[in-house]
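Re: Re: ligand-bound prediction request (bumping)

Still looking for help on this. To restate: I need the protein modeled with flavin mononucleotide bound, output as structure tokens. Inputs repeated here so nobody has to scroll up.
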Amino acid sequence: MKPVESMFLSLLHGMDPEKAHDLSVRTLARGLGPGLPPPDDPALAVELWGRRFNNPIGLAAGYDKNALVPDACLRMGFGFVEVGGITPLPQPGNERPRLFRLPEDGAIINRMGLNNEGMIVAYDRLSRRPRWQDRGLVAANLAMNADTPIEHAADDYATLAAVLGPHCDLLVLNLSSPNTQGLRRLQEPDLLRGVIRRVRAAMPTRVTTPLLAKISPDLTDAEMEAIARIAVEADNPLDGLVCVNTTTTRPDSLKSPAREAPGGLSGAPLKARALEVLHFMAARLFGRVPIVSVGGIATAQDVLERLRAGASLVQLYSALSYTGPRLIPTLKADLLALMREQGIASVSDAIGADLRAAAA
Ligand SMILES: Cc1cc2nc3c(=O)[nH]c(=O)nc-3n(C[C@H](O)[C@H](O)[C@H](O)COP(=O)(O)O)c2cc1C
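Reply:
Sorry for the wait, this slipped through. Here it is.
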């Protein structure tokens, strides 16, 4: 790591976590982020939904909440960046403090409560940016406003999709943030069908932005089973699933003093459950509905494990906040080396390799 980068990272780690986050976003917004990265090795590419991802590693939702710096994030080397969560109207989120580091556990707890400047600000930024798809793709994470009654939630998602759908490459219905009352109920079958139906009806027909749903790691098997069925229903299909959001559970292994803070836990302690959910969903949906796996990814081994288990793409957030942007080129170089070791020619060949081996 360059000395200036490592000094900046130590500075951020010494600050209040939310102030550090805001400073890092502002620094990128001032153009002080990375320059154009070298092109990715073609072996890392993934073709999905008629789109080309230069590499399968994405930045998960929650870092660039207001779509202020998607291109600077892409220049870190991500194949795609998910901006948001974006709600129709601006909202302040929960009271501070609402973001906690658990360094002993490689984890974060947040109860931000979907603080964001609202859809119009995001629309302004996304619609003005030149869309050089060869430099990476941008997904938008959509969520209902905190004061929207659950029976009107589908309208929020439909409005967001209609406004933002034409200006991004993927839409992700956030049905799983634990810090907005009632939001996770949208994973219940009838409410989920209602949201998908309303969103599909609201999207202009010429807009073919793929529609994904992001689910919680805290679902029961029966709840996941129901979502897997709905994802392939003829009249409510989903183009993909993002598995998973943060968890409200607290593994006994947590050591950090902040472990009792209420909110969603992410990072290393989420890894095992994220993998379990991926196995569950891939067993039912592989080859039919692509899965984006997220939760506790920090190494190239983690990336390859998810790909082999049936994820078409992966995302991360917590590991980036601990390691800094040098993580992404390292992950890609290590992934190429690991694939070579395992005799895998390309990421496309890696996707689902374990499932194919088990079926053979
Ligand atoms: C501070 C913070 C804010 C987040 N905000 C959102 C959000 O707005 N929408 C969402 O779907 N997920 C959000 N997430 C969840 C992440 O996108 C991701 O699903 C989760 O952190 C697990 O990945 P990780 O272990 O690599 O961090 C947030 C996570 C963190 C740490």
